[in-house]
Amino acid sequence: MVDEAPEAIAMQQYQTLMAYLAYENTIWWTRANYFLLASTALLAFVVAGLPPLERDVAWTKIVAVSVMSLTGAILALFWWKSLRAGDFWIDRWHELLKQIEPRAFGSIKVIRSRDTPEAGYRPPPARAPTRHTVILFVVLWALVFAYSLIGAGVKLWV
User: Fold this and answer.
1) Helix 127-157 with 59-105: angle, nearest 10 deg
2) Domain map (residue ranges) of the chain
């Protein structure tokens, strides 16, 4: 049996890690889209049913909006945690690829090219806008909750 060359072993390791990275990226985006869909549907449902700011609004509507806004905020928290967990694994595979890359490709820089000064401008990662979307939803849920508090205030003091 002939021993494989170290470059061939490194290339196999690199290909395996690339498969893990591709899998993690797919899972990351799938989860992000599920949370976006659920959050959007819940927000649309709540906003469509917002009660008017009048004294004769039923307490059940005010409480329902408050509970739904807190539920939406909790969903956004889970969304954020899910993204952070996925970020860990994606970044881990990137780091391992950078370590194996010199043995697999020699002087050719694939993943490592991002770390060199001559790489010049790089756009921010595509994952950043998704994180900003979570923050947007947290702000929207806070506004809906504030609306429910204003509704309770109108009912009590007007």
Assistant:
1) 170
2) 6-157
